[in-house]
Write a structure and sequence with these properties.
CATH architecture of the largest domain: 3-Layer(aba) Sandwich
CATH superfamily of the largest domain: P-loop containing nucleotide triphosphate hydrolases
Number of domains: 2
Structural class: alpha/beta
Number of helices: 10
CATH topology of the largest domain: Rossmann fold
Shape: globular
CATH class of the largest domain: Alpha Beta
Bound molecules: adenosine-5'-triphosphate, magnesium ion
Strand content: 25-35%
Helix content: 25-40%
Strand order of the largest sheet: 6-7-8-3-9-10
Largest sheet: 6 strands, mixed
Length: 311
C-alpha cells in the first residue's frame, strides 16, 4: 500500500451561521491524483484553502506528510504547493520575472532558482514565451505559467483549484500531461474541476455537495456503485421514444440527448423486455449496447438526491 500523504478528518468551516464545509474526511495516498467534484458553492475551494493555511478551520483535523497541518504547519508548508482558483501572476512582469518572484517567495535563490526555473519553463512548455509580459498571455499559457510557479520549489503535495477552467481541450490535455509528469516525479495532487472527462483521469474522486462529502472512490467503482446501465436509442421518432420509455416500469430515466434517447435501467435488468415493448408500439429505433453510467450520470443523480433530501 502506498503511504498516506494527506489525512483529513471531520474538517468543518462555518461562516457565521452558514456551514460551508461539514465534517469532511478523506485520505490521499502518495502519488495519487485525487479529484474534487461538486457544484458551484459546494465547498471545494474552502476545503483546499483550509488545507493550505489560507483559512482557519472551525473544527476538525488534517495532516500532511506526517505533520499536523494546524499545529505544525511551519514544518510542512514548504513541502506543499497551491495554485488557487484565482491564481494571480503579476501582469506587468514577464513570465520569467514572475517565476523568479514566486520562487523567491518559496525561498529559492541563486543557482538553485536558476536551475528550477529552466526545468519548469521546459516542462510546462513556456520556454518560448519566457520574456513575454504576463498581461498578454492566453488563458492556457497563464495556467501553465501558474502551474510552473506553484511547483518551482518541488512540493511533495500539490493543491490545484480549477487549474484548467477556461482552457481549450488541447491545452487541457497538455496541462494534464504536465500534471502526470509531476506525479512521475513523486508529487501527490488534489485537483478540483468541473470537467467530468478530466475527472475520469483521476485515480480517485470525492463528490462534495452542500459542504459534505457524498461519495468517494475510483471513477469506475463510483460508476458501478450507481447500480445502473445506460443505453442510447437512436430513431427519427426520438421524442415519442422518450415519452414512451419514460413511462415504462423498470425505466429509471429517459432523457433526450441530441436526437437520441439516453435510457437508464437498473444494472441487473434485462433490457430486452423494454426494447421489445418499445418496438411493439411501432417505434423504429436502434439501441446501443448497455454501458456503465458516466460520471455525469453520477453527478446528476447525486445532485437530484441532495435536492430531494433538502426539500
Ligand atoms: N469568506 C467567506 N464568507 C462567507 N461565506 C463564504 C466565504 N468563503 C466562501 N463562502 C461560501 O462558502 C460556500 C462554498 O464556497 P467555495 O468557494 O468553497 O465553493 P466551491 O465548491 O469552490 O465552488 P466553485 O465551484 O464555484 O468554485 C459558498 O456558498 C460561499 O459563498
Ligand atoms: Mg471553488
Amino acid at each position: 500500500m502506498p503511504e498516506s500523504v494527506l489525512q483529513v478528518e471531520r474538517l468543518t468551516k462555518r461562516f457565521g451561521d452558514f456551514t460551508a464545509v461539514r465534517e469532511v474526511s478523506f485520505d490521499i495516498a502518495q502519488g495519487e491524483i485525487f479529484g474534487f467534484l461538486g457544484p458551484n458553492g459546494a465547498g471545494k475551494s474552502t476545503t483546499i484553502r483550509m488545507l493550505c493555511g489560507v483559512l482557519a478551520p472551525t473544527a476538525g483535523r488534517a495532516s500532511a506528510l506526517g505533520r499536523d497541518l494546524f499545529t505544525q504547519a511551519d514544518q510542512v508548508r514548504g513541502r506543499m504547493g497551491y495554485m488557487s482558483q484565482k491564481f494571480s501572476l503579476l501582469p506587468d512582469l514577464s513570465v520569467e520575472e514572475n517565476l523568479r518572484f514566486f520562487g523567491g517567495l518559496y525561498g529559492l535563490a541563486g543557482s538553485r532558482l536558476d536551475s528550477e526555473l529552466e526545468f519548469r519553463l521546459k516542462e510546462m512548455q513556456v520556454l518560448a514565451i519566457r520574456h513575454q509580459l504576463v498581461s498578454g498571455l492566453s488563458t492556457g499559457e497563464r495556467q501553465r505559467v501558474s502551474l510552473a510557479a506553484s511547483t518551482l520549489h518541488r512540493p511533495e503535495v500539490l493543491f490545484l483549484d480549477e487549474p484548467t477552467s477556461g482552457v481549450d481541450p488541447l491545452r487541457r490535455r497538455q496541462f494534464w500531461d504536465a500534471m502526470k509528469e509531476l506525479v512521475r516525479e513523486g508529487i501527490t495532487i488534489l485537483v478540483t474541476t468541473h470537467n467530468l472527462a478530466e475527472a475520469d483521469q483521476c485515480d480517485r474522486l470525492a463528490f462534495i455537495l452542500g459542504g459534505a462529502l457524498r461519495a468517494t472512490g475510483r471513477p469506475r467503482d463510483l460508476k458501478e456503485g450507481l447500480g445502473q446501465q445506460v443505453l442510447v436509442l437512436r430513431g427519427d421518432a426520438y421524442r415519442g421514444l422518450r415519452a414512451a420509455a419514460a413511462g415504462m416500469p423498470g425505466v429509471l430515466s429517459a432523457v433526450l440527448q441530441g436526437r437520441s434517447v439516453r435510457l437508464a435501467l437498473p444494472a441487473k435488468a434485462d433490457p430486452g423486455g423494454i426494447l421489445d415493448s418499445l418496438a411493439a408500439l411501432g417505434l423504429d429505433f436502434e439501441a446501443s449496447e448497455p454501458e456503465l453510467p458516466s460520471l455525469e450520470d453520477l453527478f446528476v443523480d447525486l445532485v437530484r438526491l441532495d435536492r430531494k433530501e433538502a426539500a
